Fold this sequence. Notes:
With 302 residues, chain A is mostly helical. Chain A has a domain at 83-254: MetI-like (MetI-like fold, Orthogonal Bundle). Helices cover 73% and strands 0% of the residues of chain A. Chain B has helices spanning 2-22, 24-47, 60-67, 73-80, 84-115, 119-130, 137-148, 153-160, 172-200, 204-212, 217-241, 249-255, 262-268, 271-281, 287-314. Chain B is globular, with a radius of gyration of 26 Å. The mean pLDDT of chain B is 88. The chains are: A mainly alpha (302), B mainly alpha (321).
Amino acid sequence: MSKIKISKLPLARREKVSPSNRFGGFDVFCFIILLVFALLIIFPFYYLFIVSITPQEIYANNSFILWTPEISFDAYKTVFTEKSIWNGFGITCILLFGGTLYQMFFTVITGYALSRQKWVGKNFVMNMILVTMFFGGGLIPYYVLIKSLNMTDTIWVMIIPGAIDTFNMLLMRNYFASLPKELEESAKIDGANDIQIFARIFLPLSLPMLATVGLFFAVGNWNSWYNGMLFNTKESLKTLQQVLQDVIYTPASTIPNPNPTRINTESLKMAAIFFTIIPMMLFYPFLQRFFVKGIVVGAIKG
Amino acid sequence: MEKVLIKKKQSLGYSIKRNLNASKFLIMMIIPAIVYYVIFCYIPMYGVLIAFTKYSPRLGITGSIANNWIGFENFATVFKLPGFWQAFTNTLLIGSVKVIISFLSAVIVALLINELRMRVFKKTVQIVVTFPHFLSWVVVASLFMLLLGENGGISKAIVASGGDPLTFFSDGKKFLALIFSSDIWKEAGWSSIIYIATMAGISSDLYEAANIDGASRLQKIWHITLPGIRPTAILLLIMSVGGVLSAGFDQIYNMTSQLRNATVLGSVQIIDTLVYQGSLGTGAMTFGESTALGLFKSVIGFALVITTDRIAKLCGERGII
Lengths: 302, 321
């Protein structure tokens, strides 16, 4: 305690003395640039929200909407009663929960196996995995493979090929490897078997990293559209992002405007966008630290 | 001599057996991964041989290799395609400019945040600027279209005050600028995180010593902070060089309204979008030709990684391979 105080005191004094540490022009400069950057990021969301709650007569009669005197949730009502949106939401939820669990399972056990003591062929498997980070087959061989596995037009094509993400797997591996080896030895002496050591000791100790990796997967699944776009033609299998693409690029056929005198098509599009980002906006501020931890640990060790 | 050799072999066999026995659980755990990587990564790698065949879906990959092998014919056809050189130069241009600007913007944002001394504001800014990274390009492209498009909010305001609507989505050059700026908008904050973490790891002794010597804030940034993040910066730059040829399929696909905006597509058509459009979109290319195009990209990308890694090592930096 006293040690900390002693080392802190001269530093604080020095800060007062040194001219470069006074609050000055440079601080204002940093503040303003970052404020502008942050506002540039916030503004589209704000504008989007305002337009989505603006009724048609006000939208049509004003050049640029920054504020609406009359709030109307008609656009949201239309979006919330639209079957295709809820269908997309359902598919995306299957990916979000089922897909994330599936990916976590395979990614975590792979990371664990590669983090423990040396076994025959460990280096070979590790190199085999690392090669795939630098070289891949490309779109057409992948397409042919998925076709030959008969996965097209099924929900599986959006889940199964994503079993292991190499980056997330390495995050897990590095985290497991950073836990002390003695844990395993002492558990063995106490008579724990391999499964118990993994499930009762290593998994509970890795909760922060499990949360990070799980969140990376969850975001990926929430944003998923690529595999669906390549391999699924059925309307009923479209993910939320794919439905959103339809809303933005072909609005008239995706969400028919029930009341053009009351709702602007732009408001409809914006309400649909808002529907897809609101969960992220609500959770992100609280979860940001997990994402940050993942990228920092990953890049420093990777 | 012989005796010793035999003994060694026996002990090797024995130790393998013992290791297999002791690591049964771990080996069981790795089997799904081996199956996964073989099916989803190595079979497609074998599948690149489609590039050397006249591919027929009826024969499949192996059948096409056995019966329809045509050597480098597909490559010759692809290199003569009217859109190929444009896509190739676009890919190089967009990819390399993106590497540079995303590096610069990340370092600048990191420096600004690092120099900021208002705690609460610092935290809020970090949350705000890292958020767009987690949105899909579907959402980001829609945001930009609704705001900056010809019928978008800002155009509407300009037209109302007597001007012409914005042409970001109809003028190739402006569209290219929009591709770069939307990339900064989405990724600069997130990419800055790693630099901020590195800056936090720089020893505070260095800054204190500089204070005693009377260094200014800018001098401290130039002589301490920037050299401090140099190894990380070089490492990340090498890693991003491999991605130069993947200039951003998701972004371009969505920003051009699923490749439908023909007026600007020419100036942003990249190899990845050409492969997709040619084979699965309009179908102007055979599977053999588009695989050849994809393989051409992968090989150059791989060579780029190796070269940069060598150069970095020659310059005395830590490489990645």
